[in-house]
Structure to design on (904 residues):
């Protein structure tokens, strides 16, 4: 048996064995992991400094970007403290398992319960930021899944020690030792992607190419967190002040986030009213504008000329399919709401799109017609986030349409099973039903949890 | 653009356009499809007779099984009538879309709604039975998805006319003409499996090899309905009469169904009490028994000898991983409930497994410890079925653990989106929140549907 197969098999066994351990023990494990991290803080941050030194050499040699290096840094601002607080926050969230979502009496003394349960073994692959190993391990443990984690090689020293602390915390609980395992190499990932018998879900967190590469190389389901090509549409009924506020926040609050806006669509009727005010505010905020001919000429013909007008330039077709992740915005004018909906459906990544409109009718049509995980009215696309939605934390933001869509909280890491119990004196068989026999009752049972 | 790409693109456009058509129109389309089927009954059944004649030649030549030929037959018993009734039944089911499952006020005048919606474009591939084209088209239309259907080549003439009737019915509604399309060739399927930009979910209904082949050849999510390796465990606390009734029904009610039982596990303490009674009943019912040494010797040492004792034979390791789909049952003895749970988790297809037990503790441990879509107590595995569960109808039975598990009803064909609305006078932006700013409220909103 290969090493990858041993890892996968022991993860499956750990998952199966954990199903008979009370869920309170998962909370217990999280508290011990919190303590182990605290206890080993100095050692972990020292390893992180080594990772940073190695990364600085790569940056100096032009082989690594400065932004990647920054993401490695674990001892910056409140990053360490919030990572630790996150473990306790997840521990305190409501248990997502054991919840009954459907319950029927099929016959006298025959009760059916659909009850939430963990998915099984998760393979989680992420890049750069080492604190993700702790966040994701906490979510997996809380939801009752076992996990195999693979971080980026740049943060190897840090994640090894974080994993050691996780293992130390787990060993203080009655959960199996192999409940959370860490792997180091891409070769191991490749081998694991073939083991659909043991691994139930792959969660890649990183670039679009990482997600697609994994989707192309496994038949295990993939919950992808890929790119965010979000847009704001300024409807003919748009209020100018809301348009300025929403567009500016959507673009400039945190340009490298996936829920930042990359495209603004202007209704043609606004070219010489709302658009110049919005455009001027964007230029003042140093946003580079890639405009189609009508929106560009509306800006260049303004008098007095807006500041930073040199930041406005003609767009190309590629502008509207590019995730800029920077202070750059693609702009175009369209003649109608239906045209805007069609454009967004064809060009967006189905992440989050917003309409600025006073018309309720337009808002309603936009929210239904735009096929994205989030459809917003007069609100910044930046609201698309698990914490802001009230989930406490998030696994990521899914642009898929199966299982979980949009910001994914703990609910995205569970599925359900059906428990059926016969309580009569004879046991239940289907041959008693049908032509000439019994009929199914299908009456509702009120139950928050399974009574056996 | 290839023909497959045109089909996929027009399915996507049809789906997107349909999002602004009221859901009542989907019900209207189903009623027209019902009429069109009725109107064209003679022509359709005549085409079905041609398919049957062609199939008979294949059967006579030994190139097709008799059971496959039987599945082609549309004018047998109440098959035609129940197919038609099914269309009306699906039309009358509650609308699975537009249902709010999470609603929060994030701030004064900022409302978030998570609302169920269709997945998008479904590619559905099935074998043999022509009525499936009508069942599945009805489910797709009712849930608001557009669909591309591919039937087995054996039923080509029949499914072509069924598809024509579906198109005729659709044309009487305001839904797009390309809402449901049918394709004929495997080459088209191969091309479509590459078009993840347009197709959102593949649903193969058929053999395990069909499902695996598709999973290996696409990065589109697959909702697989593969094999059913179900088992019944006779606990040491089992009641003998329940054991006989449940095992017999699970094995003999419909042996070729995926929810039939293939393996019986006997607690060692029952080898000379409950097992001989169950074994005798199975042999009387002409069930071939593939037994391990202890369960076989318990039968052969009986006096008087049971009837049909020659049907009992030694098992091999392969017996316990085989879906017999016939009056054949694999049997083994194990020393404990934990051993039985481990055996089932390692050998079953995670479909449906049953414990026969009087002990509540044993039943509870079994239901939690066995990692299958259905875990049953004193009830036949044959109950694992969408109609019996009360879903009205089913898309199939999923042995996956993502999105939908077990019998899949209309709920399995929907996902959700998040609609966020700002109703204050300024529009909402995230930069107003956080350090020194506003705090998120996250108060519950009571709403069954989205109020805009």
């Amino acid at each position: 048996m290969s090493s990858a197969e041993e890892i996968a098999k022991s993860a499956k066994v750990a998952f199966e064995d954990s199903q008979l351990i009370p869920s309170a023990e998962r909370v217990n494990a999280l508290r011990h992991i919190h303590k182990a991290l605290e206890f080993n803080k100095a050692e972990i941050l020292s390893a992180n400094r080594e990772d940073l030194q190695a990364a600085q050499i790569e940056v100096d040699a032009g082989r690594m970007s400065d932004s990647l290096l920054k993401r490695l840094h674990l001892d910056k601002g409140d990053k360490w403290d919030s990572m630790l607080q996150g473990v306790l926050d997840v521990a305190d969230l409501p248990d997502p398992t054991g919840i009954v979502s459907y319950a029927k009496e099929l016959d006298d003394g025959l009760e059916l319960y659909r009850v939430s349960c963990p998915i099984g073994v998760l393979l989680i692959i992420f890049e750069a930021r080492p604190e993700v190993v702790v966040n994701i391990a906490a979510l997996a443990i809380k939801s009752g899944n076992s996990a195999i984690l693979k971080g980026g090689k740049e943060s190897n020293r840090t994640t090894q020690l974080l994993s050691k602390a996780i293992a130390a915390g787990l060993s203080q609980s009655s959960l199996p030792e192999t409940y959370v395992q860490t792997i180091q190499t891409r070769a191991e990932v490749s081998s694991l992607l073939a083991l659909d018998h043991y691994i139930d879900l792959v969660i890649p967190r990183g670039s679009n190419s990482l997600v697609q590469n994994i989707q192309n190389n496994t038949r295990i389901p993939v919950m992808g967190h890929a790119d965010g090509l979000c847009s704001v549409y300024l409807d003919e009924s748009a209020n100018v002040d809301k348009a300025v506020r929403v567009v500016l926040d959507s673009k400039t609050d945190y340009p490298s986030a996936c829920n930042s806006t990359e495209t603004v669509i202007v209704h043609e009727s606004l070219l010489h009213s709302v658009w110049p005010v919005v455009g001027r505010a964007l230029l003042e905020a140093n946003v580079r504008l890639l405009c189609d001919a009508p929106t560009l000429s509306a800006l260049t013909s303004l008098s007095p000329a807006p500041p930073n007008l040199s930041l406005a330039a003609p767009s190309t077709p590629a502008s509207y399919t590019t995730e800029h992740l920077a202070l750059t915005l693609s702009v175009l004018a369209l003649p109608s709401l239906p045209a805007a909906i069609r454009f967004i459906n064809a060009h967006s990544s189905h992440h989050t799109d917003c309409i600025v409109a006073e018309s309720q009718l337009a808002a309603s049509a936009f929210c239904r017609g735009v096929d994205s995980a989030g459809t917003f009215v007069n609100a910044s696309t930046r609201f698309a986030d698990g914490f802001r939605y009230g989930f406490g934390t998030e696994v990521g933001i899914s642009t898929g349409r199966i299982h979980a869509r949009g910001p994914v909280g703990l609910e995205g890491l569970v599925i359900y099973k059906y428990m059926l119990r016969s309580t009569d004196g004879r046991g239940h068989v289907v041959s008693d039903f049908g032509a000439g026999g019994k009929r199914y009752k299908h009456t509702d049972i009120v139950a928050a949890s399974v009574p056996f």
About this structure: Residues 41-60 of chain B form the longest helix (20 residues).
